[in-house]
Amino acid sequence: MSRERFYRLGLIGRNISHSLSPRIHQWALAVVGLRGEYVLHDVDIEGARAVVRSSEWEGLNVTIPHKSALSASCNSLSETARRASSVNTLVRRAGDIIGDSTDGAGFLFALRRFADERNSFDKVLVIGGGGAARAILAALRDAGPTTNVFVAVRSPERARIAGPQLFSKDAKLELISLERAAERLRSFDLIVQATPTESPLPLPLRFHPGACVMDVICAPRRTEFLQIAGMHGARVQNGLAMLIGQAAVSFKIWTGVEFPRDRAMHELLPELESS
After folding, report:
1. 67 an active-site residue?
2. Distance between the two ends of the chain, CA-based, in angstroms?
3. Based on the domain organization, do 110 and 204 belong to the same domain?
4. DSSP labels, 61-110
5. Do 162 and 265 belong to one domain?
6. What digits encode the pLDDT tens for the residues 199-215?
């Protein structure tokens, strides 16, 4: 891989001025000795499509609300992206735009560190039916660390339409309402909050002491959901480790160079936590 190449990378989404992705990827470029930049594209869907159609990039991340819509702008999708029915990573190869999803890999990276390599959970709840939630569910099914997986969504039928590869009627995932999830919250030993909302379930919330509770949100560092979980004795983790994990996979896809994940967890993560 030529060290003289200049990598034009970036993030497409809305209301993304707070994103930590530029810090993560600029840090990684500097550490591995590559030249490049990572810029934000805060655009609506038409603007997002225009960015993708342009030739002024080598790699792009995609975040809400464009993860599902930009799948159609790709010439091909990875199996992971196809199953999640969304993309969060785009790369240009031989003139074609390839869509991928690294959210699931980032989630498993964070989960294994958070749960001390625990490889099974009796009862899992994933809150949300969007692109991140679908990628997490696909990763859970592939990794096999669960026995009973429940998915809390506002509309089960809309969830099945959005993610037919995961939410078909014969899939081994039980779709439940947000209200039902709140009522049964104490029965879950792994809970993943995969929506952009700080409080996705109706109050009051009661968590099982010792449960593992993860939130994909990075800002604020401790959401109301995590605060309540912590007060009930649950172990809690925000979305920063997952963000580093998914960034690592995207970085390798774009550059072919390994992202220094362990160094990032020791050096970069504490900086992000305190910022």
Report:
1. yes
2. 33
3. yes
4. EE-TTSTTGGGGG-SEE-HHHHHHT--SEEEEETTEEEEE--HHHHHHHH
5. no
6. 899 999 999 999 999 99
Strand pairing report for 59-62 and 89-93: antiparallel
CATH code, 249: 3.40.50.10860
What is the b/e burial string over 180-196, where b = at least 16 CB atoms within 10 angstroms of the residue's CB? Answer: ebbeebeebbbbbbbbe
The pLDDT tens digits for 23-55 are 999 999 999 999 999 999 999 999 999 999 998
Whether 113 and 189 share a structural domain: yes
- 3 state DSSP class of 53: helix
Looking at residue 187, the DSSP 8-state letter turns out to be G
Of the residues 67, 123, 169, 252, which is catalytic? 67
Residue type, 201: L
Q: Using alpha carbons, list the distances in angstroms from residue 33 to 28, 113, 165, 253.
A: 8, 27, 40, 17
CB 32 within 8 A of CB 79: no
| Digit-coded pLDDT (tens) for 83-130 | 888 999 999 998 899 999 999 999 999 999 888 756 678 899 999 988
Helices 131-143, 103-114: inter-axial angle, 10-degree rounding: 60
